[in-house]
Amino acid sequence: xxxxxxxxxxxxxxxxxxxxxxxxxxxxxxxxxxxxxxxxxxxxxxxxxxxxxxxxxxxxxxxxxxxxxxxxxxxxxxxxxxxxxxxxxxxxxxxxxxxxxxxxxxxxxxxxxxxxxxxxxxxxxxxxxxxxxxxxxxxxxxxxxxxxxxxxxxxxxxxxxxxxxxx
Length: 167
What we know:
Layout: H1 2-9, E1 26-30, E2 36-40, H2 41-45, E3 50-55, E4 61-68, H3 69-75, E5 91-97, E6 102-106, H4 107-110, E7 120-125, E8 128-129, E9 138-140, E10 154-161
Parallel strand pairs: 1-10
Antiparallel strand pairs: 1-2, 3-4, 4-7, 5-6, 5-10, 7-8, 7-9
């Protein structure tokens, strides 16, 4: 109680649970040809929204909201569906966070023509903007048993083609 009172007196009462800053937040998505698409929070809010109720590491239920990675990739000019075959099946999405943490998704894992798995780029949790610790964006994969690819503070995504096999 004394700590909360001290924060209130200092005018810092909202600091601990402050939402992630959105003003300067820009997500950079690079497609397989190297073209960058820069998306601000407002751009993502205009895209079709999806919600997922998930159990966090603490066992508590939470509802995340955002856009699917498939929609995001299509917006960046990444072709999915029937054209995702042959050598393109070895392409993957490299997602990078502000702290340097990186995760990978094979493109077929994100393609609605190949899977029903939901992979969400969330900007809201339980109806509120993500906290600064999680946001401005976080990857949520509801069907994964471990949350190791639930990357927080997402800053960029890049489609990468695996090098050809050595023969």
